[in-house]
Specification:
The chain has about 400 residues and is mainly β. Strands 1, 3, 5, 6, 8 and 9 form a six-stranded antiparallel beta sheet that branches. Strands 2-11-10-4-7 form a five-stranded mixed beta sheet, with no helix packed on it.
């Protein structure tokens, strides 16, 4: 009898050893999520990330076997589509190996808008091809509508710049609600300004998604007109998508534009001068900006040996659109020869760290002094008179 029992045990061991490894090993299935209980607003959507693990690589059918009732919608998603099954694999979606066959999916649960606050349960079931069944219970804590808020903050909500400047504000949007939310932003300001608002890192996105409890940056750009007058200008950024619209007041302080022109009254950029003598030229300096110009000074770059002076030497304040005459006195070098010379005249103003300048090239024609002509004629006359007396005195001999 004992010999017969031993024989049966040996045969059983051989049969078990001869079973296919895949059948012997296909005995495990787990479904997990890192956050099995979440809080959501009425009318919102909760998303659960699911991880399905099996002992061997195989197909697992997924179903939602229990939801809170009418009006609740559940969707299993994977790879951008609605799914009803996954296939586990030892290769992850990034291509790296994993220790056990795994697949991922997500469950979206849409909460009815009129549901009362409370805790609700959803059950996901998985069934492997080898016949193993596993369930995962998920809790949704529905709070009163409007719990949480969306806020906008800026480190530098008011900036200074001159007309024509391009200014940028960095605004932080904080989604302090219970769920992931899609936002749109709108910026309002002066009618003739160019304004834009985009989530950081995207120049064309019309809307963007911010996870519950997360923050993102919004870049606001304001381009001011070249002729904007100095003063304070308000800008408002509004974010739509949370329980209530969120807004923040920004501002720009325009310090005005700084520009000037330098010219002659008739627009002719030429002058005449005589060697060794002073020659005057009238110039017109005008403030073409929108802010006062202070300490407007004049300088010249003349040829070697020349001197150029100005009256007045400087203008203390030149108001917008105001113009003033300045007289430049040119004194060519005493060794200058007749011909054309270039003299560069520049007007420059520095006001509160901003500057404005302009310059003109004056073509100066230099002539010799007529005195030398008179002296030459006198010398010729003297020579002729001298010759006359010489011929008169010695011509008789």
């Amino acid at each position: 009898m004992q010999r017969l029992l031993g024989t049966c045990l040996a045969i059983s061991a051989l049969l078990v050893g001869a079973m296919p490894l895949s059948v012997a090993a296909a005995v495990g299935l787990t479904i997990t999520t890192p956050y099995p209980s979440v809080t959501v607003d009425p009318g919102g959507t909760a998303t659960f990330d699911l991880t399905i693990t099996t002992t061997v690589a195989e197909r697992v059918n997924l179903t939602v076997t229990s939801n809170p009732g009418e009006g609740w919608t559940t969707r299993l998603r994977g790879g951008g589509s609605i799914i009803s099954a996954v296939s586990t694999s030892t290769t992850s979606s990034e291509g790296s190996p994993v220790p056990t066959p795994t697949a991922t999916a997500s469950l979206e649960v849409s909460v009815p808008a009129g549901v009362q606050p409370g805790t609700f349960n959803v059950v996901v079931q998985g069934q492997s091809a080898s016949g193993v069944t596993e369930t995962l219970s998920l809790d949704l804590n529905v709070e009163q509508l409007g719990v949480g808020s969306v806020t906008l903050t800026a480190q530098n909500p008011v900036q200074r710049g001159r007309a024509g400047a391009n200014l940028t504000f960095n605004v932080q949007l904080k989604n302090d609600t219970n769920e992931e939310t899609t936002f749109t932003v709108d910026v309002q300001g002066p009618a003739d300004w160019t304004l834009s608002a985009q989530p950081a890192g995207s120049a064309t996105a019309a809307n963007f998604v911010v996870a519950a409890g997360a923050s993102t940056s919004v870049t606001v750009t304001a381009t001011t007109p070249d002729d904007a007058a100095a003063g304070q200008y308000p800008i408002t950024l509004t974010a739509q998508g949370g329980p209530q619209p969120a807004s923040i007041d920004l501002g720009v302080e325009i310090t005005g534009s700084f520009a000037l022109t330098l010219d002659t009254p008739d627009g002719r950029l030429n002058a005449r001068a005589t060697v060794g003598s002073d020659s005057t030229l009238t110039l017109v300096v005008q403030n073409t900006g929108t802010s006062d110009l202070e300490d407007v000074r004049f300088t010249a770059t003349p040829p070697n040996g020349w001197t150029v002076t100005f009256a007045p030497e400087a203008i203390d304040v030149l108001a917008p659109e105001q113009e003033m005459n300045v007289v430049a006195t040119l004194h060519p070098s005493d060794q200058a020869v007749a011909g054309d010379y270039q003299v560069t005249v520049r007007a420059n103003s520095s006001t509160g760290g901003s500057s404005a300048s302009d310059s003109v090239e004056i073509r100066t024609t230099v002539e010799t002094s007529p005195l030398w002509g008179f002296i030459g004629i006198a010398l010729i006359v003297l020579v002729l008179v001298g010759l006359f007396f010489v011929f008169r005195q010695y011509g008789r001999r």
